[in-house]
Amino acid sequence: MTPRFQTLRRIVLVSSAALLAACGDRHDNTTTATTPVASVSSAPADGQSAAADQLARGRYLVKAADCAACHTTADGAPFAGGVKLASPFGTFYGTNITPDKDHGIGKWSAGDFYKALHDGVTPDGQLYPAMPYTSYRQLSRADSDAMYAWLMTQKPAAVANHAPELSFPFNLRFAVRFWDMLFLEDTLPDASKGRTADWNRGRYLTGALGHCAECHTPRGKFGQLDQALPLGGGALGRVVAPDITPHGLAARGWTAPDLQTFFATGIAPQGSAFSEMYPVVHLSSQYLTHDDLRAMSTYLLGDQPPAPQPLQSVSADAAQLAAGRNVYLAVCAGCHGRDGEGKPHVAVPMHGNSTVRQNDPHNLIVAMLDGIDAQDFPGLERMQEMPGFAGQLSDAEIAQLASYLRATWGGQPANVTADAVKALR
Ligand code: HEC
Ligand code: HEC
Ligand code: HEC
């Protein structure tokens, strides 16, 4: 390799890393399309019935793959694009994927569509990997065709695309090709072991459709998914996507039935879905069938799931804990309960909460500083807003509080420092 080529390679790799970071911050809440699927009840001829089946499957797959998360804005038409995806190097926008002939994908063939999902290449050129074709590459052609067929029945929206706003050299679209050559793999590695039908179905739901790795797998130096640590925890956004390997999940007390409840409802004994996990449940996993959620949970934990770990008891300095306890009673207990037991329809328990049980206090501190917006959960469940305490509590108080929560209800050392809090403000 000549030095010049090496330099070019470095620029390409570093810029590509930045592009991937786009999955990190989503600024718009999104809504799902509610277009009804063609009905198969009137005993149509075989061809019609097959077409109706394909449409119903396409609609389901588009939900399972959470296309709306990046292609539908809160107040825009379904799939008309415009969702803003921020990265440290610029901003990407989900594009218009309605059948509009000028602004959407109305002139595309099913083959063009598959190529976009599989290779990140469109009739106009190269896509940035902010569109997660790294994961969608594993989709079957039949499933891609079903999604295409269903999207083509949606209402065309004449909404123009927003070009990404990237600075040089990240705006060199052609450069993504080099990144693809180096890092685009046909399969993603597994974090768990299994061979049952459920495990295999779960693998497809998690890896290909749910593109869980895009957030939950750490990224290497060049923004590529770290193949050595599948689902080992990723830090793209303000809230870290935790380790969801079998070992990581079991260490925080997760079981397959609890995971299923979490994906179906957003709330489990281990806590609620918030930050970037909330849209995953809200737009996607809540619509999956019971069988598919069981398969996903089986895949995550493996055919032989590790036993969920009980809370460790932790010894800690009594005076420090007492200080943390006082803050807890003053500002948190009203919602989360005096003994961290939570209150139904008000707030989740802190006792055994998976955010409190994480080794790294990052998410715990961020939740306290920023708070969590009011969220609607499937069914009639709704959680009020959790206020942020950045203005009300000092670094030292938040550190004491985090240490108290970790040692009392998280089985983690009471070692959070004021500096760690300060760094996250
Ligand atoms: C994590 C966010 C994200 C998700 C999820 C996502 N996309 Fe995208 N998609 C994007 C972004 C960003 C672009 C534009 C990329 C660019 O500018 O190169 C894009 C571009 C596209 C394009 C190219 C459109 C054009 O006019 O060139 C198609 C087609 C597409 N997405 C389809 C889908 C489908 C179908 C799904 C679900 C299976 C999906 N996307 C899920 C972010 C996403
Ligand atoms: C006004 C009620 C309220 C107060 C006060 C409050 N919280 Fe919360 N908290 C909530 C709600 C509601 C959620 C769940 C939000 C959701 O997911 O929609 C939550 C979630 C959390 C989470 C994320 C865990 C999870 O599973 O969702 C943590 C950590 C947390 N609270 C800690 C605290 C701490 C520490 C305090 C005191 C500094 C506090 N909360 C004060 C209502 C409150
Ligand atoms: C857009 C980024 C993103 C995607 C995509 C995503 N997650 Fe998450 N996930 C997060 C974040 C951030 C959290 C931490 C907040 C929380 O606990 O709700 C999280 C939390 C979780 C948790 C709770 C872990 C714990 O111990 O609290 C599970 C389980 C989970 N995700 C599974 C999945 C699965 C399975 C998929 C794919 C279907 C997925 N996630 C897709 C970002 C994402």
Shape: globular
Q: Can you tell me the number of structural domains?
A: 3
Secondary structure tally: strands: 10
Order of helices and strands: HEHHEEHEEHHEHHHHHEEHHHHHHEEHH
- Major β-sheet strand ordering: 1-2-3-6
Compute the average pLDDT: 89
Share of β-strand residues: 5-15%
Small molecules held by this entry? heme C
Low-confidence stretches: 1-42
Subunit arrangement of the protein: single chain
Percent range of helical residues: 40-55%
Describe the overall structure:
With 425 residues, the protein is mainly alpha-helical. It has three domains: 3-38 and 46-183, no CATH class; 197-301, Cytochrome Bc1 Complex, Chain D, domain 2 (Orthogonal Bundle); 318-424, Orthogonal Bundle (Cytochrome Bc1 Complex, Chain D, domain 2), CATH 1.10.760. The protein contains 19 helices and ten strands. It has a four-stranded antiparallel sheet, covered by helices on one side. Strands 4-5 form a two-stranded antiparallel ribbon. The protein has a two-stranded antiparallel sheet with strand order 7-8. Strand 4 and strand 5 (125-126) form a beta hairpin. Helix 2 (46-64) crosses helix 6 (141-152) and helix 18 (395-410) crosses helix 19 (418-424). It is globular. It starts with a helix and ends with a helix. The model is unreliable at 1-42 (pLDDT under 50). The structure holds heme C (3 copies).
